[in-house]
Amino acid sequence: MALTKRELVIASPFLIIAVNFAVAFGFGEFMGKWVFIPMIGIGWALWLFFIFKYGGKESITNWLMKVRGAFGWKLIAVIVGLIPLPLFLMHYQLLDHWTIWLPWILLALFNPFIEEFYWRGLLLDYTKTWSNWGSVLFTGILFAINHAAFGVNSVVNSGFELVISTLIMGIVWAWVYKKTNSLRWTIFSHFLVDFFGVSAAAFLDLYEKGNW
What we know:
Layout: H1 5-31, H2 36-54, H3 56-63, H4 71-81, H5 85-91, H6 98-126, H7 132-148, H8 160-180, H9 184-196, H10 199-203
Helix pairs in contact: 1-2, 1-7, 2-6, 4-8, 4-9, 5-9, 6-7, 6-8, 6-9, 7-8, 8-9
């Protein structure tokens, strides 16, 4: 029996997670820590497919609606986005070569839109008939598990604490979307996290884990 659109979308993160771990283990054998590049590229391609196939331009327009009020939730989004700021202040000097700063800035500019459109926009829209906490935990847990794949080849991105921190961010961003009916502030918060998180330097283990 053919799956419905809703069932396909709800099943999609499991496929994406499986692909992400497969790339991490398979490509990691010969690419080492640089495997984050195909992992991100393939992830973007899969997310964009589901976003445009099952969301479309109308959904994207709705996700980017201007937020009126909800000052408290906007503030929470900004606070979460600023959490990696100390990390940036300690390690920004590692972004001194184009092979490091180019993927870092590209990730910060594009990744927040793609990930938020998929993990918060598409998945929360397709699980809106669930309880609020049910949909929030579903998307948050899978969001965290997907990011755990980066820990296969990167010490900095490995460990239980990273999974928990990603889970917390996923939960907060999900609630911000539910309370504001817009992804504008989750995208901005996600941008801050990716920007201040010196992503490429972290993926390449250019600093020691816990060296904050």
